[in-house]
Amino acid sequence: MKKIHYLLSIGAVAIAALLPLFIADQFVLHICVMIFIYVGITVAWNILAFGGILSLGHAAFFGIGSYTVALLYVNLNINPWLGILAAMLTAGIGALCLAIPLLRLRGPFFTLSTLAFVEVLRLIAIYWVGLTNGSVGITTPPAEGWALLSFQERQPYYYIVLFMTLIAISISVWIYHSKMGYHLRAVASDEDAVRALGVRTPRLKLTALVISAALTGAFGAFTAMYFFVIEPETNFSATLYSIQPALNGIIGGMGTLLGPIVGALLMTPLGEWLRTTFSGATQGLNFVIYGVVLIVMVRVMPGGIVAGFTKLYRRFRPAERSAGSGDSEDGSTEEIADDDHVSTTAGRHS
Predict the structure, then answer these.
(1) Distance, CA of 147 to CA of 316 (rounded, Å)
(2) Mapping DSSP to helix (H, G, I), strand (E, B) and coil, where does residue 230 land?
(3) Count of beta carbons in the 10 Å neighbourhood of residue 6
(4) How does pLDDT run across 79-118, given as a tens digit for each residue?
(5) How far apart are CA 306 and CA 161, in angstroms?
(6) CB 17 within 8 A of CB 158
(7) Comparing C-alpha atoms, which of 241, 181, 199 is closest to residue 48?
């Protein structure tokens, strides 16, 4: 990572950390909390996208995390902070259960199977009344304090989810630049070639799925404590926690580091604004506008926002920079070098 990237990252974190000092409006802080939740979920979803895997099953891991922390807290009086760790564990186990029968599937077959997995868990949560309280759901106790992860104001939630999101982004960046990340990107290009080099692609994809699921489960547990109420239709909602993160990642730039962050930063406040603005007599119009925005963005920038602006930058950057930059700053040369590194790494670690 270049030095300018480090400086920009530090600046963005500093701005995010100082924001609550200048914003007292609780609704605005709520929107910020929702943005960070979706950034974290989308970044976790994108770990699979490094390998070209499109999952619509992350609502399952989100719901597992939500119910884990709620059941442990309400029934066994286990601290929610420990409940978040337990949620990551159970979500990872859920990913293993999903991977055993489905991970060898490719393309749309795997994607549709993950969506079915969410529906199965949602129905289990509805009908297993003795454990989940069915459609009525579970309400966490009203006791407040840092030890119980429960507050009346939004500021503490803001800093907690900001910290969790930074951890998720750091893990994503580490994976992207690790041997695992190179292998995943090689799989996205040609899985058969990678397997021919001796890389165990099922194990590789399983590891990525478990990490992605564990991070999603952590955000599911946090959201359960944030909203106090956990019920199947919301916490296992494919629309909210499977399709929306996928849309964020695709619009921002699927399989890139910055794409999921940009997508979530743009689409989450847009969705919340449309929902609150058109929640009266014109209810439903928000989905129409949201859909039109999605169609326009996908048509204009089919590779995602990050790829689109990168192309614009390369096209309109100053001529003197282009002439003097040589191959070292040319995107195609850098991509070829990166592909060579992927292939070399795959062969070296086979």
Answers:
(1) 53
(2) strand
(3) 10
(4) 999 999 999 999 999 999 888 777 677 778 888 888 888 9
(5) 24
(6) no
(7) 181
